[in-house]
Amino acid sequence: MKHFLVVFLFFISFTGRVWADAKPLSVGILLYPDVQIIDYTGPYEIFGWAGYKVITVTEDGKPVLTNMNMKVVPDYSFKNAPQFDIVLIPGGDHHKAMHNKATLGWIKAQSTAAQTILSVCTGAYILAETGLLDNLSATTFYPALRNFKKDYPKINTITNQRFVDNGKIITAAGLSSGIDAALHVVAKHQGIEKAKSIAMSVEYDWKAEKGFVRGNMADVQLQTIGGALPKELQFDEIHSYGSESEWHMAFKVTAKQALTISYLSKSLADAIALTKEWMPKQSQPNTWYKKSASGELWLLDIAYMQDKESLQLALHLRHD
Questions:
Q1: Per-residue b/e over 264-291, b at no fewer than 16 CB within 10 Å?
Q2: Is the dihedral of CA 41, 42, 47, 49 positive or negative?
Q3: pLDDT digit string, tens, across residues 249-261
Q4: Are 87 and 130 in contact (CB under 8 A)?
Q5: Is 69 helix (H, G, I), strand (E, B) or coil?
Q6: pTM of the model
Q7: Where in the chain is the domain with CATH 3.40.50.880?
Q8: Which tens digit of pLDDT belongs to each residue from 78-94?
Q9: What is the second-level CATH architecture of the domain 8-214?
């Protein structure tokens, strides 16, 4: 028994050194001006807990300001960055990055040897511009899904998943979805139990298969209304929340000219009518109804409030 114990302890010691000496996976995170903070810091935390070597990269190696003015000093530039096992492309104000030839070239060069390419939120637009998503499935930030589908017809746009795994290339939906996708990547490389352990360690309510899907929320029924509103009206959100069956929204509404409830009411009614989806409910003023593609009946109640300082608009959407 004593001899067995000595051998067992030697085995544990030896394998422990082997595991400790194993080269950790490397993660290269692309940063650019106005990048969204949670898109890369959420996955950074997960990969860090997994023991991966996490490195940040900008085009020229110089510091950048995020969309909320966090100053980030990167580890590398495109020119001196090493090859990574995992490449993360976060979202944010992606418009310049998605048309930057150096950025697209760096991603494509990294993709040849990387094991995983992961985009988060509108980082999918940057990835799409490389052509690497052509003929694959992808998702992106909830408000961007409609335009993403229109802009990239070669990509199968998925609206009802928190992340989409094509094998080597993975895309996550908006913001905190990157945490789910990062945990999924860890599960692929180190097993589901490791990923569950990390989720528990960071106190994240991770549901690997049935996570929160923003694209399934009730306000998807309102997407077509906003584009038809007069451009002179400005809507500053007060709140917007709900579930798959109900949604509450409120806005402070302003305009360059004097604004009245009657003008706002007519403008909103005209915009709703132009969608050709909603009909006024005759028995209830300021209430509209529609049937969804699946046959569900939806009701939209509208309320207007005006005081000396502002005019406010409240919407209550519900599944009847």
A1: beebbeebbeebebbeeeeeeeeebebe
A2: positive
A3: 999 999 988 889 9
A4: no
A5: coil
A6: 0.84
A7: 8-214
A8: 999 999 999 999 999 99
A9: 3-Layer(aba) Sandwich (3.40)
